[in-house]
Amino acid sequence: MAKTKELSKDTRKSIVDLHQTGKTESTIGKQLGVKKSTVGAIIRKWKTYKTTDNLPRSGAPRKISSRGVKMIMRTVSKDPRTTRGDLVNDLQRDGTKVTKVTISNTLQRQGIKSRSARRVPLLKPVHVQARLKFAREHMDDTAEDWENVMWSDETKVELFEQRISDMEDGVTDLAGRLAEAEGRIKVMAKGLDDLENRSRRDNIRIINLKEGAEGESPTQFFEAWLPATLGLGHSSAGKARIKIDRAHRGLGPRGAHPRPVIIKLHNSGDKQRIMAAVKAAPELHHDGQRIFIHQDFSYAIREKRRGFNASCRALIDKGIRFRMRYPATLVLTYNGNEHKFESPKDAQSFINALD
């Protein structure tokens, strides 16, 4: 059965988007003209790996297809005296270009080894003519001329070819291991980033607060400053209603811009209250300087989100509502339809098309 054409990235992304909206596999298949089994396979892949892209394979594919191997085996079975050169020519006529070493490797994998014939086969007419031509061209050569000729030894040539074949097999095996290792590294890096963000889930980050504003006791300062700045109020006991475990400046030397403040909250509910108050407040200021309060993410996610800054500014100018979904997906609503973008380039192209 012939291999079907691979679905485009846009089609696979549409399948996932429709699945997230709650549509069934049958409905998605009918809407996009894709088989239900294919829709199910793409959704399962997205749930497992959080991507619909092709995953790295363990090694390069065989140069000779299974059909080509069958053709080689038929030819060799019919005529055991078939040479590697003949097989190379047969495959080349069939559209596959390989070397003699590849032919040798294929035959060895099929359990066939080369042997020297007990009787030398008769020369073909083309060989007779070639030898006669060579003899006539060199008939008048002197003994000194023949001393300068290097004669190849059949055994040494076969030995070198075998070594080259072993080296090619080794390189192919290493390439497969390298691809597998790169895939594992990506999975581990993604896992580490996820663990880092889990450890930051109760953190907030304050930007542009003047250096030294927190004094010598940052924890006590922010326990009082956050409720007062955000209008959260205090408890009946007179203590701050927000409990902070740690508060410190980000690493790095002091410069023209204040270093960010990272605060670890004791209760996860306090973070929700703070972010809701930040969203409701038009602007926040301290000592005549505007400040910003954000969720605290890993460096990788912050960089991904920073890539959407230009798109977010353009959406604000156009008055289009949007939000950032974890980890770094821009979600906007336009004409009653929800659009999601994981690439800043795709988001900017969509916004430019609105003009």
TrEMBL record:
GO molecular function, one term: DNA binding
Gene3D superfamilies attached to this UniProt entry: L1 transposable element, RRM domain, Ribonuclease H-like superfamily/Ribonuclease H, Winged helix-like DNA-binding domain superfamily/Winged helix DNA-binding domain
InterPro entries: Homeodomain-like_sf, HTH_SB, RNaseH_sf, Transposase_22, Transposase_Tc1-like, WH-like_DNA-bd_sf
Pfam family, one: HTH_Tnp_Tc3_2
Domain Transposase Tc1-like: from-to ranges: 71-140
Residue ranges constituting the Sleeping Beauty transposase HTH domain according to the UniProt record: 1-52
GO biological process, one term: DNA transposition
SUPFAM superfamilies cross-referenced by the UniProt entry: Homeodomain-like
Protein name as catalogued: Uncharacterized protein
Annotated source species: Maylandia zebra (zebra mbuna)
